[in-house]
Transcriptional regulator (Gemmobacter aquaticus), 248 residues
Amino acid sequence: MLLEALATRLEGTRLSDLAREAGLAPSTTHRLLTTLERNGFAQFDPMRSKWHVGRKAFAVGVAFTNLQSFIAAALPLMRRLRDATKETANLGILEDGEVITVAQVGSREIIRAISAPGGRAPVMNSGMGKAIVATWPDDAIEALVARHGLRRLTRRSLRSMAAVREDIEAIRQRGYAYDDEEFTSGMRCVASVVWSATGEPLGGLSVSALAERLTVSDMPAMGERVRDLALELTHVMGGRVPPATGAR
């Protein structure tokens, strides 16, 4: 409520006006504003005795707008991917050692992969996560594993740094990643990275399916399809593929 009031008044707002609009005591309002200020979401102008929205709030707003644009651009391609493969298409981003699913176009099959937007998975148990971090330097990947560890969610989950290195090298060679029942037994996923305008990984695009429908022998062809759609989405977003990746 306080942030909304600050954001709609670029000229600033007095404490008494904010308290009245929020229906709070001035002392409570001041305490909340001080907390927002400490975290960069509000700032106080002592010359005019007015509160303004902080820079961090603007940054969060821009990030949200960028994410919404990413999803809007991806959805038509995700529907094409779902229709071509008959399986679930996913879009994800990386956040603090986890992949967050931000959009999904579900398979029309009765039994299908489901991960509602907002769902999370450890990076090294996720096809999208591994596709993204495979673009990182080796020391950054090792630091990520050192910080977050390796989750043994299934009998096929990666369990050592040596296994991680081998998998990452294969992903770099192929241009797409596998989750071979590493997050959920009986489910497989194939994923590739989407690039930003600065040549940094923007997120991941994937197809997930029951292991009985997405067999090991099917995964390379599926990977090429996903990689091509991720490259198309990169171009739609005005992204740039770094030359070192070998992608066109």
In short: DSSP finds eight helices and eight strands in the chain. Residues 55-85 form the longest helix (31 residues).
